[in-house]
Amino acid sequence: MVSIIFASLAPSIALLCFFYLKDKYNSEPLSMVVRSFIYGVLLVFPVIVLQYAFQEEGLLLSKFLQAFVSAALFEEFFKWFILFYIFYKNEQFDQHYDGIVYGVSISLGFATMENIFYLIVFGVDQAIFRALLPVSSHALFGVVMGYYLGKAAITESRAKSKLVVLSLFLPWLLHGIYDYILHVQQYWVYIMLPFMIFLWSIALRKVKLANTPYK
After folding, report:
1. What is the pLDDT of residue 1?
2. By Cβ atoms counted within 10 A, which residue in 4, 63, 157, 205 is the most buried?
C-alpha cells in the first residue's frame, strides 16, 4: 500500500512543484496550495458516486457520452466549482498566475486519489503509464482552467463573464477529446502522443502568458 501511495503521489508532487515554481511574482501561500490539493482529493468521492449512479441506471453508456459527460463534464465541473467558489473569490487570488497554481493543485489532488484507486485494482506496475497520461493530463486541464479564471480575476471588462465560461468549457472539451481517444480508437497511442504534445504546448504557452505583466 505504501508503494501505491508513493507511486501515486510522486508524479503529482513533481508536476505541482514544476508549475508552482514557474510563478515569477508572488508565490501563493503553501497552506492554500495544500488546501486546494486536499479539496481535489476529496472531489473524487462525489464524482465516483455520480458516475456509478448513472452507470447503474443504464445511462451515458455510449463511448461518446462516457468520454464527454461521465468523465470530462463531471470531473471538470466539480474541479471548476471548487476553484471558482472557494479560491477565485479568496483575497489571495489576486494575480493571473494564481489561477494556474490552484487549478493545477486541485486537478492533481483529484488525479492522485483517482490514481490510488486505479493502482490498487490494476497494480503498481501501471504507475508509469498513469503518470505520463492521466496524471499529467489532469494537470494540463488545470492549467487551462486556471489560466482563464486568473485572467477573469484581473480584468474589469465585459469579457470577464466570457473568460469564466471558457475556464470550464475548454478543459471540458480537451478532457472529452482525451477520453474519447482512449475509448474508441484502436490505435489510440498514435493519436494520443500528438494530442499530449498539443496539450503541453498549450499549457506552457498559458504559463508564459500568465507570467506576462497585464496591461
Report:
1. 77
2. 4
